[in-house]
Amino acid sequence: MNEAGQHGKASPLRILGIDPGLRITGFGLIEKTGNRLSYLASGCIRTDAGASLPSRLGTIHSELRTLVARHRPDQAAVEIVFVNVNPQSTLRLGQARGAAITALVVSGLEVAEYTALQVKQAVVGNGHADKVQVQHMVRRLLSLAAEPSPDAADALACAIAHAHGGQGIEQLSSRGLHVRNGRWMVAKENKR
Fold first, then answer.
1. How far is the C-alpha of 158 from the C-alpha of 80, rounded, in Å?
2. Domains of the chain: total
3. Quick check: pTM over 0.90?
4. Which of 63, 79, 113, 154 is catalytic?
5. 147 an active-site residue?
6. What is the pLDDT of residues 64-80, one digit of tens each?
7. Active site annotation includes 154
8. Residue 49 domain-assigned?
């Protein structure tokens, strides 16, 4: 929880963003103090394409557990990834995402989930922004010397979206609101 401390200052909140993938899982760690965001770490977990699927999932799980133990984030945000072209790829991506979420939950973290549209809308202001635009805005928002890799940038963007009020996005959907074309919409009531 990010509550004001003894002297009225907000205590820091560490947020770990994850961009899941079977080949490359991006991670990004930021710290939020009041309205200020600070970059702490980012990078990619790469799995061996020649290894078995269980081994690759184990790599994602164990590397994320190690990251959480090392950096001690307070919360985590994971991108919800959609792949509709190849069912086999979609299934494998879902398994990689499951390995990542399991590692975070087993480590004791609350996990928030955001669609790419929600992340891009929060970071770039356009839910249909491309990867280059996301990288550029992440660099600007976190005052980085260079643009992070695309996977690390997506993970950092997920953490930024969570820091910028994303903690309430999930509650909005439970109150009858949903996202359509990057905008929050009121769900139509069921007619009796």
1. 10
2. 1
3. no
4. 79
5. no
6. 999 999 999 999 999 99
7. no
8. yes
